[in-house]
From TrEMBL:
Source species of the chain: Lichenicoccus roseus
Full protein name: Alpha-hydroxy-acid oxidizing protein
Signal peptide residue numbers: none
GO cellular component, one term: plasma membrane
Cofactor(s) this protein cannot do without: FMN
Keywords: Flavoprotein, FMN, Oxidoreductase
One of the Pfam families matching this protein, by short name: FMN_dh
Amino acid sequence: ASGLRPRRHRHLLRHVLNLEDFERMVEHRLPRAVFGYVSGGAEAGVTYQHNREVFAQWRFITRILRDVSRRSTATTLFGRTYAAPFAIAPMGASAVVGYDADNRMARAAMDANIPFILSANSITPLEELAQTNPHAWFAAYQKPAAENIQAMCERVAAAGYDVFMLTVDVPVGSNRENNIRTGYTMPLRPTPRLALDGLSHPRWLAGTGLRTVLKRGVPAISNIDPTQRPTIFSRTLGGVTGHAAFAWEQAELIRRHWKGRFVLKGILSKEDARIARESGVDGIVVSNHGGRQLDGSVSPMDVLSEIRAETGDMTVFADSGFRRGTDVLKALALGAHCVLIGRPFLFAAALAGEAGVEHAIKLLSREIDTDMALLGVSAVDQVDASVLR
Ligand code: FNR
């Protein structure tokens, strides 16, 4: 039960040999505005490009003649053991890109036993998603107002989430010129230009666009302010970015009201990592938001080591531009416990629904497993700085 028939999936997925292939496969299948929204970065795309190039700065030093016949990519995060050291990153408005994409990514993640993180900017109600995947994590932007924080924490906890991620690198929306050029807005505002864009991609329109409207009403952002019940018109609740006045005090307020694990996403400075640790945060995501926020910012890979020196017992995630098993292993070697990956999983859901996401997870898992053997390690905790030059 996905956007395309299973036979077609198998045919399409035969051409997808790695995570980057998904983007090439969907580029012409998606309306320009939708593809641009997912693939794009901020301003000149300097950080977006750097996120891919940065990995070449490190090379592996392999170890030989070690018995690597029994390998495991198992990774324990917050007391739960997952199958691999990567997770599906939170992405807003996913269901506009691929039909029911949040649920499909969440289901594939659950079946493969990797973490899935739901964005508060998704159009799938957080309660519904928790039914699909009871182990999903939740990610909100630096909202809402202080007086709503307790209610927000209660709603997310009542739905069954154990991990609350607060995305802290969006005090204001960034300048994404590709969205201006194509007419993409969030929440989605139907315009003649968008309609034309959709009509010229009839397969997306029938397979995702119209079906989403039929299921959810006019696509809107439903979990923006988690104190509010999602409705078709919930876009009237406010903007989709963070709140410029939101500061450490509010993060600490969430810490006080949230009984589960609390993670800050979007940290690039070691000073902020230290404040996070002192504030009782359980984990941080070292991230430049996939090059979608401040253009010219460093890649997580540039700062992972120095940040790791400040993190103590916190769980450390990294994201932005990870596409290969070798990329993941390089981050683990610099001290990350797990990597988040965004765009490829959303493109996979757009291309082939749950089967596409399954395929993506399998490809990356296999790369990590093979690369570990070639590197001469049998478990992820054996990957340390000594494997890198
Ligand atoms: C994002 N990202 C994001 N992050 C977040 O905390 N909340 C959100 O709602 C979103 N929304 C979102 C939408 C889309 C379409 C993309 C591509 C990304 C950022 C995301 O969680 C992650 O940090 C990056 O996507 C990681 O970079 P890569 O793997 O896409 O290069």
